[in-house]
Amino acid sequence: MHIEEMVNRVLGLGLDVGTKDALRSALHFIGYDTKALDSIYIEVRNRLSLKAFAKVPYDQRALFISHCMKSSKTCKAEITDTGLQCLDCGDCSISEIRTEALALGYRVFIVPGGSLVFKVIKKYQPAACMGIACMFELEEAFEKLNMANIPYQGVPLSKDGCVDTAVDVHKVIQVLKIREQ
After folding, report:
1. Dihedral of CA 166/167/173/178: which sign?
2. Domain-by-domain residue ranges, the chain?
3. Model's pTM, two decimal places?
4. How many Å is the maximal CA-CA distance in the chain?
5. d(CA 52, CA 169)
6. Which parts of the chain register pLDDT below 50?
7. Rounded Cα gap, residues 166 and 160, in angstroms
């Protein structure tokens, strides 16, 4: 069964699936294998936060891009107290994503991990956040953002591994453009 179908079925049960353990239990309850638990968890959390995220104007949102998407061989970006400062060289997909996000009005941060994300959030206080990262980093961020009552959306990396990672840029741009109709 496709992840989208599993998410719809789980959410249709009306159960509290706010934690990964609760989601695991719900999947067992309806007889689904938990191999795709991480992907389903990210999708469920995105769905639960979607309406609140969509209400926040673009210029009150922050985009966090995992620095592992940079080209390890050619990137000349410098690290600052708010992350990498992209030079828009075009050697990785960060520049394309960053350009689109900035044009919409997002504040964009290219960060090495969760600890810097929360320092930036504390400093700039965005009303909503979007992240591009591995499943582990997204799950950690979602839990903290949920506790802080900050709406969010996340797009998992399509190729992870901490170096020269990749993401579906089309999917990222779709999520960037989410807004209340």
Report:
1. negative
2. 3-176
3. 0.88
4. 50
5. 23
6. none
7. 7
